[in-house]
């Protein structure tokens, strides 16, 4: 009943649990002849790696990716060239403290998938959330690194734009700031606000939600397969598939509900270079499910981590009322580490549509 | 490059343009032995039919559905029984005024798919928007009516909860009101507000966005195929595929970003009937991509119709600057007619997952 | 539980029963900008049309195809141009004599799908075989005609090479003969043999099997998606999906089991034109699941029609022993009419892989 | 451009090359709650393991399978229980002699995928055939072992029924013989014939083709998804996807072309137990694409290994004429080791359809 593959021509299958020996993915449909180094993939994994600041889980994993297939090694053993066959990527789990979870093996954490996995499967790997753990997103990030190779002209970046009720100031949005702080925050002045707020959340053993924005620049016009493979539809599907995501927007999103057709219209003029020019981008780069050539912009809301220290009313697998309190090493704001995951999902969606349109005749044209 | 099918076991393929001879869908995977009358399907089509009030397009279509295959007629010719083979549903186009569109055949309406269809396909059926017309949603509604047969214990309803900046008052939400006004509005006191506002919009030749809420009650716990066939993921995908939709939420959606883990946790207790009881439903009935047994709740934002009377700057297919003003019979608030469409998409998503779990051995168990 | 779609990028969904109001298909993924006339499609349907000789069913259907969507009509109304949106093709059923089948409504014809459809679905459209009727292949042929538009450089032809134990003489194989006789026979001297034999079969109310060969010339090297979308795999799948087919071969097929590696090797030399030259084609144009550039050659075995006049032992739906004798207008050798169907399936498989490799960016490159 | 996944609900993705660090598969959609030991999987891998007799490749691989995900270990660490999440199986490559292949890195072996992989991808892992190596079938066999868990009531067996022109004597077919000789031969008297013949082939550095028969007993009536997910269609597709397979038959296969409807009809009677009884099985257990409840019988032809010692004319990647002679450790009759692979493919096809019909609600019903 699982369905752990996504994509139509650029196809990714992920596997693995939080506390098994390893996790990974198979990236199928990657064109041949693309060259990369391990570091090209590892750098994205390092962005989402736990234990990098006090605002994310203190679980420490090396998260070192191995390439098991789909490539031909260069003479010096430093670089790989894709051969067009499936690329198997594996990350071994190295810091598993299963005993942390013993207490909740039979309890359902409110807001967590514990209850539904038991309801569906009748068995559940309670160690670290098993398959429902955010740890699975490491495989997504590795796949996303491969996707970026497929669309080298496309620049994909992400930022955190809201934690709890604290939003960034849009007028101060600066991509250069994103790597300067532990929050992927594009607004330098918001950083201390979030820092203070999250310290408070963390010390209370609580958690809080967030909003992530991901942007793809350089997407050519014409990508998308209407009606039921629309580019925005596939982006929405993949972003919603990330753990804890409860909402997805394209362009101005829910704000579009509030305005008139005049306000919403992205007017056009011919540019001096003879190319069509949009005067605004309410559409988020997608009209009728097809890319316009403008930046593709998406946002998604991440709910607060459900593993918190404060006791909550719940039940256990035997049908008894219990109070659940989750120890272990959790993210006070899982939305932070969702930034590279959102980027990866956007990269995969665009790579898939790129190949649908350009085909896979071997070398990219 | 199109991809006009959705669903994994309950599969729907739609076809047809606004101004061709007909449009329709093929519903594949419907279990055998389900009995229905034409009226069972027609009633849902009548809900989205144009021309029913001054707040929707004045185009008048009978929208009469025909069943071409997949059924065995009863002796009296009144009822059909599904045979398990593909059900072909067709709706003939009867009120096409192609000449209304002649002027914009070469122009790109800002905010419309005109530009992107040309960018992708190099040819475009400009008559009424062709395939990108909201008219295609008639086929979705017909498919949704069949989906409801598959999940008879599930009650699916929709309502409009926001037009422009005017939201309903949640404390007055009353499903019984929804059919009492031309807006599918669940709050009687909001009706006159919307009426006055939309009259103004309509007279100005303008348009405005809206938010639709759809709810499924009676969904059994355990539906959903994590990780990449999550129930919320598939719902998000299908809602985002509806024309003009720019955002999708499940449960408390973007509000989840603003609150803490304590606030967001849907606590549980064993009910007096020995069944698990949730004390709240921030999750919108889905945890970890799997249904909880609570009502499944989704919302989606519909942007304002891009066809407006006010001239907007744009370009034409030859690369000249033009001012576009769209005549024709358009919806001042296309979100209204999106209500039955959203219901249909939710029904299809749930029916698909129902069959994935229950299988299709012939008769539903 | 049905699954009436095939193809990955060139996707065909068929629908319809033998005795419903109509049958048809939706061809999805056809690139835009291809021009055709109704006659381009109709000519292939006419090849498989019943009633053309005494050796096929005497059922008479006009089998006139209608194009309901996916095209833009030319000014003169004679030609259509594809728009990249789904092409809906419909053929109305006009000569249904349901009463012919009344007697076997409750009986299971040995060798027919009657028993299994009842076993699976618990309900069955017994009129003319319903969905399991060879009549469904009309939709395949229509789809195949569209597939040919996608691969204009590829020439696809079929011939009957065996009826019962009577095989053609390979040394006399002449494509020009195929249209000169009612059997699609490429060997003029075999025609009278088959004629005499089939007259005998027909008069006895019996039926007999046949072998069809289909060939695609001009297929570029490099088509096929190993490992599980191999070109030969997809051809085998589609040929096996044709009613009554029990075996499929590529190239020398089962003969390959009998020979040595030396004999089977298709040796190569560089041709005078600087292109690789194969000295033989045991492989049938496919190695490792990928086309070699040589003609793609496939054969399939069609079993004898199960509807025969001779009584056979069987049971009925109530579990009683009965003797079944099928009246009605059946094909003494359904393999004859399978020739254009096999061609269509080969065309669809190649078109699908052509698009996978070339992509669907709008206009074919 | 690869497509390395098969199955609709029971989905298998394979990855890996002959000479990379490892190969494996991800089995997705396996129901939860199934218990197995490593030996349950290993035993099938051992059947196809190289180096077991002088009639197969002398390459020696331990072929030890590891289970990386999708299971919950028992307390004693001996048994695993499936959790419904994807099962990742890995086999490390341990006996790689890449230098054996250096000479043919730039040459195209006639009858091998060398030429087509280069034609398609422009790059090729020439070491041991890379992805086109029969070594990939180890992953299939591992997946097949999991498939058998899903359908415990179904008994799947295979046998070699023909090597070169030497066929078994059907009247002596005895399943008990199959494991008594290195050929999976069901006819004791044929064993010495094959032995002498293959010794001759082996000493000549030649190779020869074969025919494999696979049978599934205990398949319930009603499996299959007509029209384009017919059970026989899916079996044909998977058998044809095995390396070197050139033909596939169901039931009496090509023989069906030679006989009359009377001869081919599988007559029925009600059995003494009140169940339908077939008096013969020409259909091979499938009618109209749906299982009848009789044994499902398929055969496939395997061509001779293309890697032979006898020099053959060919070309190299630079376009020069060369004579190719393949050293290395190859199978004189690769059809022998195809027996467990064919069994695995049949198991996967049936498991997939079993789940489509029964669903995946957690525990198998």
Description:
The structure is a homotetramer of 365-residue chains. With 365 residues, chain A is an alpha+beta fold. The first copy, chain A, has one domain (5-361): Chorismate synthase, AroC fold (4-Layer Sandwich). Helix content of chain A is 24%, strand content 23%. Chain A contains 7 helices and 19 strands. In chain A, the strands form 6 sheets. Chain A has a 5-stranded antiparallel beta sheet, covered by helices on one side. In chain A, strand 15 and strand 16 form a beta hairpin. The longest helix of chain A is centred in the last third of the chain and has 25 residues, at 334-358. Chain A is globular. The model of chain A has no long low-confidence stretch (mean pLDDT 91). At the A-B interface, strand 1, helix 2, helix 5, strand 12 and helix 6 of A face strand 1, helix 2, helix 5, strand 12 and helix 6 of B. Strand 12 of chain C pairs antiparallel with strand 12 of chain D, so a sheet runs across the interface. Chains A, B, C, D: It catalyses: 5-O-(1-carboxyvinyl)-3-phosphoshikimate = chorismate + phosphate. Chains A, B, C, D: It is an enzyme of class 4 (lyase). Chains A, B, C, D: Pfam families: Chorismate_synt. Chains A, B, C, D: Homotetramer. Chains A, B, C, D: Its EC number is 4.2.3.5.
């Amino acid at each position: 009943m699982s369905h752990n593959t996504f994509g139509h021509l650029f196809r990714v299958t992920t596997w693995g649990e939080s506390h098994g020996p390893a996790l990974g993915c198979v990236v199928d449909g990657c064109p041949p002849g693309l060259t990369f180094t391990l570091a090209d993939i590892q750098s994205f994994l390092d962005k989402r790696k736990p234990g990098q600041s006090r605002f994310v889980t203190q679980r420490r994993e090396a998260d070192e990716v191995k390439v098991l297939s789909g490539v031909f090694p260069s003479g010096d053993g430093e670089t790989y060239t894709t051969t067009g066959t499936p690329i198997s990527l594996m990350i071994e789990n190295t810091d598993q403290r299963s005993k942390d979870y013993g207490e909740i093996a039979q309890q359902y954490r409110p807001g967590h998938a514990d209850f539904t996995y038991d309801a569906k499967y009748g068995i559940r790997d309670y160690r670290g959330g098993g398959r429902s753990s955010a740890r699975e997103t490491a495989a997504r990030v590795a796949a996303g690194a491969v996707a970026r190779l497929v669309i080298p002209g496309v620049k994909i970046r992400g930022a955190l734009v809201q934690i709890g009720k604290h939003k960034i100031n849009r007028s101060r949005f600066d991509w250069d700031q994103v790597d300067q702080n532990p929050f992927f925050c594009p607004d330098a002045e918001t950083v201390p606000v979030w820092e203070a707020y999250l310290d408070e959340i963390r010390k209370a053993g609580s958690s809080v939600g967030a909003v992530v924005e991901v942007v793809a620049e350089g997407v050519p016009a014409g990508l998308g397969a209407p009606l039921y493979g629309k580019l925005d539809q596939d982006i929405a599907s993949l972003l919603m598939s990330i753990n804890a995501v409860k909402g997805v927007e394209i362009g101005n999103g829910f704000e579009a509900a509030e305005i008139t057709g005049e306000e919403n219209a992205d007017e056009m003029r011919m540019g001096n270079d003879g190319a069509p020019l949009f005067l605004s981008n309410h559409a988020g780069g997608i009209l009728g499910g097809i890319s316009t050539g403008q930046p593709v912009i998406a946002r998604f809301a991440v709910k607060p981590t459900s593993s918190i220290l404060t006791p909550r009313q719940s039940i256990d697998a035997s049908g008894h009322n219990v109070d659940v309190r989750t120890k272990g090493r959790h993210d006070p704001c899982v939305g932070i580490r969702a930034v590279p995951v959102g980027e990866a999902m956007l990269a995969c969606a665009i790579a898939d549509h790129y190949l649908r349109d350009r085909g896979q005749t071997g070398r990219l044209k």
